[in-house]
Amino acid sequence: MQNSSDRHEYPAHWEADVVLRDGGTARIRPITVDDADRLVSFYEQVSDESKYYRFFAPYPRLSAKDVHRFTHHDFVDRVGLAATVGGEFIATVRYDRIDADGLPASGPAGEAEVAFLVQDAHQGRGVASALLEHIGAVARERGIRRFAAEVLPANTKMIKVFTDAGYTQKRSFEDGVVRLEFDLEPTDRSLAVQRAREQRAEARSVRRLLVPGAVAVVGVGRAPGGVGRSVLDHIRDAGFAGDLYAVNSAFPVDQKDIDGVPAHRSVRDIAGPVDLAVVAVPAARVPEVVAECGEHGVQGLVVVSAGYAESGPEGRERQRELVRHARTYGMRIIGPNAFGVINTAEDVRLNASLAPEMPRPGRIGLFAQSGAIGIALLSRLHRRGGGVTGVTGVSTFVSSGNRADVSGNDVLQYWYDDPHTDVVLMYLESIGNPRKFTRLARRTAAAKPLVVVQGARHDGAAPQGHAVRATRLSHATVSALLRQAGVIRVDTITELVDAGLLLARQPLPAGPRVAILGNSESLGLLTYDACLSEGLRPSAPLDLTTGASPEDFHRALAQALASDTCDAVVVTAIPTVGEAGARDAALAEALRSAAAEVPGKPVLVVHVELGGLAEALSAATSTAPHARQSSPAPVSQAPASPPATTASPDSCSRLIPAYPAAERAVRALGEAVKYAQWRREAAEPGKVPGYEDIDEKAAADLIGGLLARGQGLTLGTDETCELLGTYGIPVRGALPAPSPDEAVAAARNIGYPVALKATAPHLRHRADLGGVRLDLADEEQLRRAYAELTGLFGSPDEVRPVVQGMAPRGVDTVVRAVIDPAAGAVLSFGLAGPASQLLGDTAHRLIPVTDRDASSLIRSIRTAPILFGWRGSAPVDTGALEELLLRVSRLVDDHPEVIAVSLEPVVVAQHGLSVLGASVRLAPPPVRDDLGPRTLPVY
Length: 939
Fold this sequence. Notes:
Layout: E1 16-19, E2 25-30, H1 36-44, H2 48-55, H3 64-71, E3 78-85, E4 88-98, E5 111-118, H4 127-141, E6 146-151, H5 156-163, E7 169-174, E8 177-183, H6 188-210, E9 214-218, H7 227-237, E10 243-247, E11 257-258, E12 261-264, E13 276-279, H8 286-296, E14 300-303, H9 313-328, E15 332-334, E16 340-343, E17 350-353, E18 361-368, H10 371-382, E19 394-399, H11 408-416, E20 423-428, H12 434-445, E21 450-454, H13 475-484, E22 488-490, H14 493-505, E23 513-518, H15 521-533, E24 537-538, E25 542-543, H16 550-562, E26 568-573, H17 580-597, E27 603-607, H18 611-618, E28 658-659, H19 662-682, H20 696-707, E29 713-714, H21 717-725, E30 734-736, H22 740-750, E31 754-758, E32 772-776, H23 779-793, H24 796-799, E33 801-805, E34 811-820, E35 824-831, H25 834-839, E36 842-846, H26 851-859, H27 878-894, E37 898-908, E38 913-915, E39 918-922
Parallel strand pairs: 5-6, 9-10, 9-13, 10-12, 13-14, 14-15, 18-19, 18-20, 20-21, 21-22, 23-24, 23-25, 23-26, 26-27, 27-28
Antiparallel strand pairs: 1-2, 2-3, 3-4, 4-5, 6-8, 7-8, 11-12, 16-17, 16-19, 29-39, 30-33, 31-32, 31-33, 34-35, 34-37, 35-36, 37-38, 37-39
Helix pairs in contact: 6-11, 8-9, 11-12, 12-13, 14-19, 15-19, 16-17, 17-18, 22-23, 26-27
């Protein structure tokens, strides 16, 4: 047996905070020699039955030898992990590497025995499942590819942990013991299981914050005013359905209440349970409050206190310590420096925020990192008149402040299957984990619209207090990737609300065809022009003339909606002389009734100075807007589809959004059309084809050998060609030509005609500078071109000329793939040349790319018509180009060590293509990625 000295340093990167099934948190970390007392204490709290299941015999206590064995690990062949809450063990897991005979072994043996023990009080919380994910990731990192476990048949809970994990496994029964063997390579099913568990746990953790049974406000002043007292008043005035407590250590001992709310000097003094604590004390006192809350069993915190990362380096460290401290007790945090949370559900009625009024209940989920923007959005959605008018309510609201813990990703997990939320609006100033956000956004958008506006996007700097992963991608690229994931990306707060109102009130359009009708020819023409600008297909406006009555509007709208030539209708209206109020109400009723007669198509109104009309259009039998109706077009069903809403067009009046400008209405409609199209396409997402000539093992062996040379390297020409060749990507060879005679010899070897190219870094891929000579038919032309090239740019050592065989004529393109630290693997495509670079005409897709993605990628650039026969030119082989994109995607997806691929130029001819230049960069893969075990971020 090895001595206590570790063969490896303590693996700090194995430490992680995780969210458990019930929404609480635990910390997972390696077990060390310092944990002997914790291990003994933990074991004493485990029932005799659980001990029997672990050791297959009565085992009342651990011997000194056992304690030594279970706390001394080499972190390679013997590893132990513990899940802790409050610093104490609640569960342990360990593996021991074994050989084919089941005896202790060292690498390269690829199998290990694994065993768990979970404290009885914490069984059923998903602790073992989380530990299995983490010990599996550790084992893979140490070269172990298979786990074996022996379990008593009566230990059904542990058998279920293994069988539900989704790994490929074998099961046998011998000598009264169930033996399970399973491969640790992630499978589609294991990833689906992991992400479903992640969604349920994180959604539950947010629910504990938004649906509390009891709330304590800590830091309530004795006099009116102040942050704590204001939050308390807002919760009380909103009619909170649960128990409410006021807490302030300065309260007199004999003070029993404050304005009718029970008052206490400490959270510890509250007799009943507390689910949520709103912390509004100076930052210096927050640690004391966190400890009080944790010891009392509080489930979550909303920290409105300032003085954290937004105040500088010291504040940032204070913020990190706040999160560490809260997670020690299994609590999650919204904030610090948060504006608060709101839940308008009738059985909750929580306004734990600085907003003085509770917004109207509705079906829009609202997330804002900025408190100021959050209250502006609430105000905009709440009031009638001004901006986009009309009543549309909020289901839940979260303002995360510095988002030190709970972020937009967590709230998306909650809203995904929240039956009270139909549309999600988000104002983001930063995205801490774009890779996860994109994954969650794609799933959410398949079930309900997600509209995002991002602030602080031009200077590239994160707002004070926000920790953001470094990214090399431009904001435009990130926006394109979000749109690929189904996110409705808008640029302003006004557009955010405009789109949200339409999506919350109206069904999705089945296509881009728009009917326009109204009582103003000029306003109709403005709407028509706006539709063309947004890529919609409007029909000629129908002018009802200024004398049109409400009955005329009703008849025209009903006819337009009944027609199979339109997918949406925009109604334009200008004021009429006379009884404005009564006429507005009559017109609104006419439009609503016509829309109700022919449901299934969206209706928008563009009004000019018709405040009464906007209010009348928003009037309904209930203060809450009803569930958005389904589009007649097919939509995708996300895994574990969230519950459907129950409202129907026959059971309620439809709310019609009204806009003060044609451009705003049409822009919102354009976003809805694009989103509906994405939903239809997402229903059939495409496939990642398998190519029989791809040799994944040969590529892996080559990469492993190359990386053995160093931590990261750019491959040479021969190595690049060899690696790309394993994935069926041939690169047209080029021979160095350091002298005219060697250029001639190379040309004879290749065969005329040839090209002569300068490959110096400042001339590479710069045909516009004259560094390329094409179609050289003989030795005379080659020598003359060589002399011109060296005469123009310098000596051969400076120019680095090469000779290459001529490729068939075609369109020069560029294919690149890169692993971005924040966004993950990204595939890019564009035409070669300075014009495309100057205009930024490059399209992007997340890897892995499907056949549908590859097809849309080459059609997404503005210069795509050149590939398809623009101005009479011959169309090129886009099928071959799509296949190349798919092969590059496969290479990068299969081998995370490949961090950059550049193919330039790729000449796409009428038949086939030629890769004339290529470069590849390798680096050791990240220890953990989005395929790894569930973890909470550490900022």
